[in-house]
Amino acid sequence: MSPFRFLPLAALCAAALSATAQTAPITLSVDLTSAPRKILYSTETIPVTSSAQPTDMTLVYPEWIPGEHGPTGPIINQAGFIITTPSGQRINWTRDPLDMFSYHITVPPNTSELDIKMDHLAVAGAEFTAGGSTSANLALLSWNTLLVYPLNGDIAHTRVSDIMVSPSVKIPGNWKFGTALEVVSGGISDAQGGIVVDTFKTVSLEQLIDSPVLAGRWFREIDLAPSVTPKHYLDLAGDGPEDIALSQQHIDQFSKLVLETGALYKSRHYNSYHFLVTLSDQVAHFGLEHHQSSDDRVPEKTFIDEGSFTEEGDLLPHEFTHSWNGKYRRPAGLATPNYQEPMQGNLLWVYEGLTNYLGDVLATRSGIWSPEVFRDRLATIAADLNNARPGRTWRNLQDTATAAQILYSAGGAFDNWRRDTDYYAEGDLLWLEIDATIREKSHGTKSLNNFIAAFHGLGGNTPPKVVPYTFDNVVSGLNAVVPMDWAAFLRTRLDANEFNAPEMPGINALSGYKLTFTDKPNYWSTLEESDGGLNARYSLGLTVGANGNIGDVIIGGISDKSGLAPGFQIIAVNGRAFTPGILRAAIDDAKGSGPAISLIVENTGYFKTIALNYHDGQRYPQLERVDSVPDRLDTILAPLTR
After folding, report:
1. How far apart are CA 170 and CA 196, in angstroms?
2. pLDDT tens profile 337-361
3. Distances (CA, A) of 126 to 4, 199, 409, 415, 420
4. Count of CB atoms within 10 A of residue 182's CB?
5. In a 10 Å sphere around its CB, with 0-12 CB exposed, 13-18 middle and 19+ buried, how is residue 51 labelled?
6. Are 471 and 347 in contact (CB under 8 A)?
7. Domain 523-618 listed as CATH 2.60.40.10
8. 1-216 in CATH: which number?
9. Topology of 337-515 in CATH?
10. pTM of this prediction?
């Protein structure tokens, strides 16, 4: 992500901006017919108040994109930005010298609208989403990449919920599309063989940017849980026809997900919901939440390969959960009135952390994951945060949320010491502990489900809207379920700088399971090692690739103390040329009273021998049942619907 920047409010407020008053909706037409060539086109018309005198005006390109938690608007991939009057007169723009997302213009006399052309280059960039994603046969349109909007005097007085837009999109003649936007008229062929959907229903700019469009040649829309109102759709676009041929079993699991969310949240805050799933190896892979849809980009064979389906199984439940937790109920610091005001991520341990936990639980309740897969996931998270994230001794969980906009670009070597967006994974531990604590204190009569239904179901079924919350609101909501000092409980875990995860009692004392280690990889360890490498985080304190390159070294672990570091290459193990299998055998041979492991390593052209005096064998995390404690985790994972 781009670094944080302070916006020059004084500069933006300096000019008289009477030309920004909106007298009619903005019209925005996007052309996707060149998407296979990685370029998208837009034509935008912005009404302005006509004046007999030249009028200063500021247009802005969306910078802080909801759900991305930082200033990620892909302005680096903007091109062809030209402004004219209806008569064709070119209007020169000047970029603000401090705020790269602001353009200052002077509107000529007697001008009632501005015509704007803009291109988006759908190529890789530094941004989280890199804007649009395209391949030869599909495209995902993020509207924010192809528009500007006027400030209403200054940033403080600009509300995107008040700016109305009439959008349309043009796609190749043999493509179809899915979106949460309502089509007013469509299927109008033009002379070039494209199809103009003219138009979608006029919506606010806020709703438009929250409603991406997925289009493709190989496209399929599936009606999920047909008995449920409002309607839910699984919209798929793949690189080939085989990619969208998922089984009826998986369709039933996604329908079950719809039913399970209804039972959990006791509400729905959308008019309809569309899972927009891009199945392609040619695009970035991630998920981005929206109020009435989700942008889910996964590898090409995800829905037809059982291993891949399980590996990506939490993505749709996670992004779907955000419709309630993140879009409807939203931290006050993220509920900004426009896309230029900086966001504050201090409550991302709720926004993302709770969503991470609920997404994993819902994946299990809906049958996408088995309970064993969930337990292996939880064991891996617990082992990492309790044994292999020493960075928590200086960066607490709260700071990983507060500093989210700079930490999304982190990761990689020494990440265990740096820490990045740990509020995702640690959210599983935190909210499991909360869930188990409520169940324990209420003797099983209440659970986190009660908090979720009241907090996220507030007001019952509603159209899309935002209801902000604060830390105190979260504490009050938990106290309404089970009274205790939840503020102190949360602050102890958020602000702790202990080496071990403070949430571990949620597993070891309350869940009915405890974290242990075995010499056999669990499900997620096996996936991590599927490329031929070796995950020895919990034994040697390192990870190593199939070619011997060390990916990471746990600070304070035996490999770190012995002088190893990320980027070194292991050349030989105990006198033999390195392979992951030989290193694994050396760990086994050293167990107990066996010999120390001797490595020859290379570092930027220099070689040395390093001895690892380690004798505890291979270690992989697992959860072991504790019969003396109620099986609360199994109860948590049980479906709410039958």
Report:
1. 4
2. 999 999 999 999 999 999 999 999 9
3. 14, 33, 9, 19, 17
4. 12
5. middle
6. yes
7. no
8. 2.60.40.3650
9. Neutral Protease; domain 2 (1.10.390)
10. 0.94
